[in-house]
Amino acid sequence: MVDTTSPHVNDTSGENNNDPSIAFMRPRILLTGLRRSGKTSIQRVIFTKMQPSQTQFLESTPQLVTNHFSCGSFINFQVQELPGQLHVFPSSQSSSVTGETNEQSSSYDDDASHMLGNGYDMERLLKRCHAVVYIIDAQDDYSESIARLNMIIQLGCTVNPKIRYEVFIHKVDQLSEEAKSDTQRDIHNQVRDRFTDTGNELDHWPSTPFSSNTNSRGVLINFHLTSIYDHSIFEAFSKVIQKLLPQFGHLEYLLNYLLTASNIEQAFLFDIQTKISIATDSSPTDMQMYELCCDMIDLLINMSEIYGQPNGNDGDEIENDVDYDPTNGQEMNGIHSAAEDLYQNSSRAIDQQCYSETTDEPAFNVFDSMSSSVIKLTGGRALYLKEINHHLALICVLREEALAKQAIIDYNVKQLKDSILKL
Amino acid sequence: MGKSGGGKTSMRSIIFANYSAKDTRRLGATMDVEQSYVRFLGNLILNLWDCGGQEAFMECYFTAQKDNIFKNVEVLIYVFDVQSQELDKDLHYYQSCLESILQHSSHAKIFCLVHKMDLISEDMRETIFAERQNILTNLSKPLQCSCFRTSIWDETLYKAWSQIVYQLVPNVKGLEKTLTNFAEIIDADEILLFEKATFLVISHCTRKAHRDPRRFEKISDIIKQFKLSCSKLTAAFQSMEVRNSTFACFIELLTPNTYVMVVISDPSISSEVTLMNIRNARKVFEKLEKDVARN
User: Which Pfam families match (chain B) (predicted)?
Assistant: First the structure.
């Protein structure tokens, strides 16, 4: 059994202490929650385009999984998924401070079929991360889940006060609108209650339905209602990432400028691979428009995959889309637009720490420098998509009349593209 | 026709009534026969008989209602739930259907859909389908049946239904000939003709061989999904253009009842030229449609 966390921790903790700028450029997100809450499904659906219905075949994650997510040269994320059935305990209670294998920890495991000799050092994980995304299964009894969340927040406050906590109230696709808001209110109250116990001030109850802020001792907690069966998970994750992105302010400024210069109504910067919106302009967006943009990306990629294969690929199998070079011989996480093989990949026994890296390689080989699309809708609106770099696309919503001045728009977009590339 | 819960109404709703796959969850059991009149290609009216599959109704179809149901049938679509535990019973009902068809509408075309294939894991699908296809083809003799494996969650649904409606398109040969001419003139790699409401491929012309034989249904699926998304914003799409460095594809309204998709891989042809060509071709196709309608 490979000792998973200690070499990893030793590698990067030094790096963290000595070079904060690198750590910041690679925002780290810790994804956790109880077992079967949906963490791996979320990752698969967002990062590897797995069909939501296929996620029911996924097995439990036995180990800490780290995914590097990179779109373009300046956006780098690391998402660490902490499996749900392991018992994580603060280092003050364990004797594994040095990261050595602790024989005792096996008795803490909830799930006998995943006996591991190592407990994960939560403190270390929290110290290094910038955001904790906690998944609560809204279809289940979530009291245990909330208890665990509270424990994590408490620990996090002592270790790293700058962490943002994003709570995904997940699997809400089956709930009615009323049930959704009830659940959200309930969970929110329970989390708040915990903090008022320790003597913090009660906060003002926020009124926005989709994300709410709790500020106790300056702890930032946001709630999102999500489901992998619709776009809510993408939107929630977009918000998380936008807040962590250091260049967000600048990008927003650039997009606003584009809007005024070209008579465009809305502009979004999307990562093609994950359909996460990296930046938007300042105008308020509604979820439907966001969804439509995601669908437009799907359309572009799917059509390009059928007709736009680079020449010379005619002999290839239909199933094989883009693959990545394996890093260090560890498991390769290929990107498939229809997750044909992913079922096999995920059910393979994983011996070592699962480590997959998306590099600067093009996300889709069919998404090249000339990729673009124009969709005209009834009612005079049009959607205009233009490639920015290998991973990013700009989507503009504008009036059909404005589209007539396409040359000007193209020029402005090109300027935008150059500015972004310079960042 | 088919056993209760097999997916008949769901399929019909997705293809003809713009339901999304998720929406079909709220459909209830069909009571007796639900008749619907579906407009297809503008002036063609498809009389669709969705026969509720509960046993009480099934018994009735083969006895009291036999004449009513099985006369003047052009197409019989029988839906088998691949996960059904009572295969023998299903086949028995199917046989009764065939007997009645042989008696009253022996010229009907028969389609067997092995449905809900998404519930079977991917590596088993081909084998299980081949098995069923074998059984059904043998059982159907002397009649001929075309078998398809389908699921509302992927493009296989469109493949089956495309073949089904293809049988019903009037003057399909004339349409194909005109499309071929058109493709030659504008130097297109491929042209597809879709029926406007269902986005099923009713005709195509391929000038450059393509490696993916399943692309037609995939495209139907892709566009239909997008159409459904648009409807959430209470908008509909009118036209689209998708391109990258190796191809450009245009989807435009061709006649009031059909959409055309033109795929061009010659980078020297600009969008404006192709769009203009499509505009000019409209008159030809509209005339064709009118002539057919008159006849």
Answer: Gtr1_RagA
